[in-house]
Structure formats: C-alpha cells, structure tokens
Amino acid sequence: MSDINSSLAELLTIDGAKCTSLVDSSSGMVLGEDGSGVDMELAAAGNSEVVKAKLKTMKSLGFKTEIEDILITLGDQYHIIRPMAKQKGLFIYLVLDKAKANLALARRKVQNVEESMKV
Mean pLDDT, to the nearest integer, of 66-86? Predict the structure, then answer.
C-alpha cells in the first residue's frame, strides 16, 4: 500500500506526465497534488462536475457498472480521470503531454496506482 504523496509521485514517473492530483468529487477539493502546468484546484472542481454528470447519465440509462476511467483528449494533452473503486467519491486526475505520453501505458499505471493507494 502506498500513501497519497508517494502514489502521486509515482504517477509523475510516467513519460509525459505533467501533474496529478487526488480529488474529492463531492466537493471538488484537491486532497493531494504533485507536478505543475495546470491549476489543479480549478481543474479538480471542473472535473468533479464531469464525474457527477457521467454518473447521473449512467444512472438514467440504467447502467449497472462502474466507471473505469474518463479520458479527455485535448490538442496537446491527455487528461485521465480514474474514480477509485475502494474509496467511493474520490478520483485520481492525471495530465499528460500528448506528444510524450503512451496512453495505454499511462492508463495501466494509473490503474495500478489506484489499486495500491491507501487513503
């Protein structure tokens, strides 16, 4: 098991990683962050709304499954949002430089960190 700070630091070892955070989706508050390049307080608040909207839509559609991750692709960045399975209401948020990152490897690393993170 890894604590929040070491888990976030581990995510920054991904090629192209710029910044990352652990976010409480109900309040939009950052519980931990590392890296630079994006205002994580603002991004966390906005992406909390993304998670809430997706959960609401899934409920309306009657889906009986969990979100593994949400990918937002920008011109020069990937944003990965991964809700934590063991800690409902929290999600890992990772920003990657699109030119440097391998998306498949990054998604796998986020999954591994999420599974081993102790909150």
Answer: 96
Residue 78, helix vs strand vs coil: strand
**Residues of 10-47 as b/e, b for ≥16 C-beta within 10 angstroms?**
bbeebebbbbbbbbebeebebebbbbeebebeebbeeb
Half-sphere exposure of 54 (CA within 13 A, CB side): 18
Structure tokens given for 49: 């709304």
100's CB contacts (< 8 A; 6+ apart) are 15, 16
Between strands 70-73 and 29-35, the pairing is: unpaired
User: Is it the case that residue 1 has pLDDT exceeding 70?
Assistant: no
Per-residue pLDDT at 118: 87
Helix and strand numbers, DSSP H then E, in the chain: 3, 5
For the segment 49-70, the average pLDDT, to the nearest whole number, is: 96
CATH of range 4-89+102-116; options 3.50.50.60, 2.60.120.10, 3.30.450.30, 3.40.50.1580? 3.30.450.30
